[in-house]
Design goal:
The complex is a heterodimer of chains A (about 625) and B (about 325). With about 625 residues, chain A is α+β, with helices and mostly antiparallel strands. Chain A is built from 18 helices and 21 strands. In chain A, strands 11, 12, 13, 14, 15, 16, 17, 18 and 20 form a 9-stranded mixed beta sheet that branches. A 4-stranded mixed beta sheet of chain A has the order 1-10-9-8, with no helix packed on it. In chain A, strands 4-5-7-6 form a 4-stranded antiparallel beta sheet, with helices on one face. Chain A starts with about 100 loop residues before the first strand and ends in a 15-residue tail after the last strand. The N terminus of chain A is likely disordered. Chain B has 2 domains: about 80 residues, no CATH class; about 190 residues, MetI-like fold (Orthogonal Bundle). The model of chain B has no long low-confidence stretch (mean pLDDT about 85). The chains are: A alpha+beta (about 625), B mainly alpha (about 325).
Amino acid sequence: MSQGLSGYWSRPIRRRRLIAAGASSAAAAALLAACGGSNNNTAKVATKAAATAPATAPSAATAASSGTTAAASPTQAASPTAGAALPPPTGQKGGILRAQIPNVFDSTDVHRALGDPTLWTSNYLYNKLVMYANPDEGTLEPDLSEKFEAPDAATYIFSLRKNVKWQPPVSRPFTSADVRWHIERQANGKLLDGSDGGFTRQVFYKTITNIETPDDFTVKLTLAAPNGTFLDRLAAYFSTLPNKETTEKFEATHRTLTEEAMVGTGPFICVQLRAGQEVKFKRNPDYFKPNEPLLDGWVAPLIFEDPVAYRAAYLQKQVEGWGSPDPSQTKAVIDQNKGAMTEVLTGVGNTVALIINRNTQFKDVRLVKAMNQAVDRQKLIQTFHQGLGQNSGIVTWLQEGFAIPPEELGKLPGYRSDRNQELKEARDLWTAGGGPALGDVDITVPVTWLANWPDTPQIIAKMFNDNLGVSQFKSSQSDYNKDIIPNLGNGKFPHWFGWISQVNSPDPRSDLRNSFHTKGSTNYNKVGLLPGDPNLDDQIDKATTLVDLKQAVVAVRAIQDVIMANAMFGNITLYNYISRTAYWNYYHPLLKAQAAAGNPAAGFNIFAGHLLARYNWIDTRDPSYQGRPPASL
Amino acid sequence: MRRAVGRYIVRRLLLNLLVLWIVATLVFFAVRLLKGDYVNERLGANLELSANNPVAIKQARHELGLDEPKWQQYFTYLGQLATGNLGKSFETRRSTWTELGERVPFTLELGTLIALLSFGVAIPVGIISAVRQDTWADYVLRGFSILSVATPVFFIAIVMTFFTLKYHLFTIEIVKSPHFWTDPKAAFFKYLIPAIAGGIAGGAGIMRLLRSQMLEVLRMDYVRTARAKGIAPNGVILRHALKNAMIPVLTVMGLTVSGIIGGQIILENMFGIRGVGNYLLYTITNRDYPPFQGTVIIIAFVVVTVNLLVDIMYAWFDPRIRYT
């Protein structure tokens, strides 16, 4: 069954710095990666244990429930991945939001877009079959469907809502035929003229071997093989459903921006989407979810190239939120305006890791363990991100539902606070594994990382030399496109420190399969194939067939235990850092946890733009609203 | 005389064409020396997606002509230039002329204000400083000009912005992009600080040069003769001295105008002005070759043309100059 899965399941590897860290609220502007600073801004994002969820935001403590029914939403009774129903929107209605969105749109066709801005934006204009109720935990709620069931991991049945309409000018009901078209177009991969369309998720949709639409509001999908993560993929930000008529009309000119090409069923209607112009959305008066959206509209100004401009615009309330490339500056502004601004911390999806190539020098797992314990995660967080970050295991802390809780992670090798013990063990492991005999060890750093932190090679080399008591480590520059990516398949990639994958999903099973299954498409370190390696195939295969989230969490934890005990077999995940954003108090963005007891507020770490319509609102009665320039579409 | 000037102009125009061809060639190859291209930088940022979707990436490269050999791209580019075609933006698919057409007005607005402030302040200040040499007025004005020359324009702008925001002097319009003919009030407050900052930075050098030229000219025999003939002091300064002192200053003013047309990259970025300078930075960051190349060529064209005009104006200012 898992043979049907493919490279599609792999997490995207981003080599560019993050351009949109405001995953918790789509209104958070593009942030630049933090540059070095010396302020000690140690901060942790509110975790599941610490968060107190207000009535107006999804509860961070909601766990996946199997078979439980929220009285207000009987449709979830049969949904094994559903959590408690999302609280209804309660904010003030009205107002025009002004906040940036990443606006480099490479296509208006979400089936073919390579860049994320189009896909993120589609979450405000379109809907999905299912959506995340809590993106960090992975609990699901119906979206275009009013009910979804999974009799087994290869069969999924969706009962569609009957009151959904496409936006003007299409203005017809949404039916099961639309779902069929959405799937078949991507699976077939052909354009109207018969040519190859370069459909980015064709591999995924080809795993659907049968689509049944017995009536206008029922869709039954049969997969080639059981896949417990199927619903998770359908809830991801890239799984929005576009309109057939407009997509086909603009198929040949999909790279030319026009709002006419972005017709959906969503809470907002695209009013302006033109090259070089602000992006504008207005409320969809016929949206099928009651009381949504709260906002009348949204104007996304063009991206500020200069942080000074962005800051000046924010201080004059010309935009609602802002974050400096230097988080200490953001903090300073918030502190200067206490009582008028809110600080929000959000985990950044780009994971930082140390990738050790086990195909060459590091065949002995003891050497990899030594590296895992020698690397000082906290020091790196302090050096590069001014303390704004948190250690990550093989499943990052962003993926709260599946990650090893921090208090347990802190007991594992490489994560313990007793650095003396860690280094002693690291040196013993290094010696026992024959580390000194390796000769020079080059930990490269990709140029895109160096663009932000040019002294990283010196820091990395010194850290390993000092911590292992050797002088054999050096660090040079590498290039993702030239040195790393082309050599991943042949096992000749360099060791490297830097970004690996963007965390796009709360469910790590696909990535775990790709990286640690012997047939995984990104198992570049030959896990399970090198002498002495445990074989995780059976565990992974079983985990990926589980539809019930609770069971999946247990299964994934067992897999993680093995992986962590072996220093992640060279795929040494280090940390995910945290972005800091300031918002004026009159603007209420979607939050996972409100500010409380001296702690800043927390945003969702994984993209939650689909919830913006429900929870983002402007409070004109708040004192900070005074002096806000009027906004209009 | 007219024939001589005519021949001179023709020679200069031919030379300008050569200069433009060299600029076009240099910029074409220079941008391609940078790491990455538009597909890498913008579309292929999602590497896993790229690795698993080679068809999509290949298609994107083909659409943009990036899969052709460089020499072929070069000759295609030259052929387009010969017909006045500056290519289409990879990102927006609009012609470079259209993109520039939207941005030049912003640059001209800011540039005109900077020029007015620069010249309008620098010339009288330079004259006063020279005429009142070694008085308190001269000391103050010279001190101010030295400080202005030494201070980077962005620093001046940051300080002004800081004080404006801190003391709520007025609202600096950052997000909107108004024109003077659409929303004069918003445009005024959008351009006020960058114009003053640019004017101070640009005018200081002109003032200092004019002062030194005036001092030299005021000591000339013909000026003494003009005074002796009873011509009023203002007449001596403005009709006799200034005209000669302005000759080298004209060159600097011409360069300033060229710089203005090229766009004030720093000021435009700092204040969200969607002008030519801002566009240059944006396109090169994203490896959007056609508009970057086209913009550089346009700027080069303006520079060589302005320089030619300045050279011609020399003959008007100084009858001794002959073009043979």
